[in-house]
Structures
1.
Amino acid sequence: MAASFASRCSRAGRSLFGGLSNSSPGLFTTTHEMTCSNYLFQVTQQRNFIQMRTVLKVVDNSGAKKVMCIHALKGKKGARLGDMIKASVKEAHPNGKVKKGSTVFAVVVRAAMPKGRCDGSEVKFDDNAVVLVDKQGQPIGTRVFGPVPHELRQKKHVKILTLAGHIA
Amino acid sequence: MRLEKCWFCSSTVYPGHGIQFVRNDAKIFRFCRSKCHKNFKMKRNPRKVKWTKAYRRVHGKDMTQDSTFEFERKRNRPERYDRNLAVDVLKAIPKIDKIRVSREERHHKNRMKGNKAKVQKEAEKEYEQSIHMVKAPSSLQQEKIKVKVSQQQSEENPLMEE
């Protein structure tokens, strides 16, 4: 009887200790993860390539409002600032040149992911934005809104640069 | 080639250094290093961060108005190249620099003028207020330090043993 009581007690003790030992590191890790995630959220937000299913703003008067990238024409990982993509129109004005659901070519004129410049410094923008072009690279719209990078000149998109108001 | 100023700390951004952020209203923020960029992303105000030039200017730590700063002004009209002028400029740079440094030293000296008397006064006050905390070394020797040694009994839990 006594032996059984002792064994029961020991089991209880073990379980209690086991619970403690499990719980205390668990608590620590959760708090640590929380602080880490908070820190990351505040300071560094991960910026990625423009790849399949990236939704981009259209900053010209072609009639489309939002497009979704369906193919990056160059680059293994995806498109970056100044690259051409193939996109599908997700939102459009009712009487524009481009209809909703059509497939278009576009040039990325603004990207939130930093892009290295020729002198070694970097440039990044507020949002991801495109200008719709035809297959030859001529813009469909007649106006371009917001700043565009001067790297477009190297990419032979001089027409977009002339239409743009601000060149960064 | 233009040497821009860092938006956060107002130091010079040399070509190939740092990062620039273009806001949607086409305002360009240039940063000399990731430290300044991170502080910008944390939405810190450079006037409230002590190590920036902006803070030092606001709080009167640095010289703000001086004729030597006129040479380093941003000019939007390019100067036509003239060899003699360039030679003169190169000669003048160390001279102007020397003048600026000496003026800054003078400014610092002026700023620290009443500091020595203030430090002295504070030291005297502290001496008067807390002299009782100090004891002469001879009085310390007289006191004997006694430490009570007690035996600790190890607790045994009979229930823990099988």
Note: Chain B has a mean pLDDT of 88.
2.
Amino acid sequence: MMKQKKCMTRNVSVHLLTISAVTLLLSINTVMAAAPNKIKMMADACLTCHGPNGSGSGKIPELKGLEKSDITESLFGFKSGDEKSTIMGRYAKALSDDEINLLAEYFSALDK
Amino acid sequence: MNQIDRRTFIKLLGAAGIISSANGFVFPGSAMAKSKARVVVVGGGFGGATCANYLRQYDSSLNVTLIEPNVQFITCPFSNTVLAGMKSINFITHNYDGLRKNHGVNIMHDTVISIDASAKKIKLKSGKTLAYDRLVVSPGISFNWHEIKGASAENSKIMPHAWKAGAQTLLLRKQLEAMKDGGNVIIAAPRKPFRAPPALYERASLIAHYLKKTKPSSKILLIDSSGDSEELAMFRKGWEKLYKGMIEWVDGSEQGEIVSADTKALSLTGRTIGTLKGDVVNLIPPQHAGKIARVTGLADESGWCPVNPQNFASTLQKNIHVIGDACIADPMQKTGHSANTQGKICAAAIVIELNGGTIPDVTYNTGIYSLLNPKYAFSSAGVYRLKNGKLKQVAGGLSAKKASRKTRLKEARFASGWYKGITMDTFGKT
């Protein structure tokens, strides 16, 4: 990243800068600071088991970049008990329908 | 084509909503840039490390310093696998490089000797003084030796507790390795509250796993002051299946807890259970909040620290938050997962309070996996929400009582995934 920034200090066009700034943003999803709000806080709770960025951890599945409908289907299934699970049913029962939708939106929006 | 220099570039980045941090990482402008406050976090375990990490994740303008005497942290979770010879001590050893390099947390390897809550300053063993706007104290537990006659930090070199992982874990492992076949191992637990109660049953299970393979005539005596429970019943069923006749559970409730220890005779005495002699004695003493919390007026007469569970602010001292095992966050159990959750919620609450805003209604999650052997595990989950200022359980519970070996194996694999996930999340690894 430092290398990228150094390059940019030389003569570059504003046009190129815009593209690079976007690339820079997309390339860092590990150390992004984001103000805490309800859904950010609830999504961060998932990372304890699912790992940084929801990238998955060992046999615990990845969440980031999944289709929103796949996440909602699983969570509603865990909540109702229609979808079998070892532990997720016990967590999902605490979530409201709105929270499930928001969590699905959050994780599906993260880059795979 | 406009030519631009570095300064203009940085200005433009700012305008584009990107700001540069001191450690070379770049943070999007959604981060709150208003506060620039100094937050000091004391204690680099699951609570403190997570809190320092997430303070920086939630507000990159914060100056966050983590004070921890040790350069490495050895986790209690999975330390029972070290006792059983399944994993090495290196597997459960972590450092603070991720917090420093990936999240811009200042790490100071030092010890806090006093806190001046009115001046908002702390004094360190090195002689330095640090000023703070908010202080987070996450000191874990310390042992209440004087409740057991003959028990002391010194005597724990003969009767290890191994309830803080590290040298004690290795000592107990060494004793188990040196024990002859047919020997008796005593595991004696204190009355609640203490750190990670289910870990006691996992310990008995994994020691039995080791003994069954290497010293099958040996026995384990588990003195348990918590009495019977649904969780214990599940373990006992598992023990019956996996370690028939090897683990004897002794009901130490109803004042049965250990009151004296004789390190020469390797025996323990309880009020109602008499004197029991072992070849290896794992004496886990009664516990209370880490010393710094108790000497600075953060603990009440129970020895633990009362907090407002919405932001983990001490109810006894202003501008100080207490998280992890040291705080009273009932009904959340004192576990690494609870501390990690509290670290995140406390970090969010501090950022919101410093910048203005309302702390949202969120779930407080906790979970603990217990291995009965490398391929057989249960879990206990808890989800809580704030209701009228108190935490109330809204979901959770134990694994299914009846389950196939395949399900228990799946949970054992999830236990490993959980460990990897929580340590990466806590210590800021990527």
Note: Confidence is low (pLDDT under 50) at residues 1-32 of chain B.
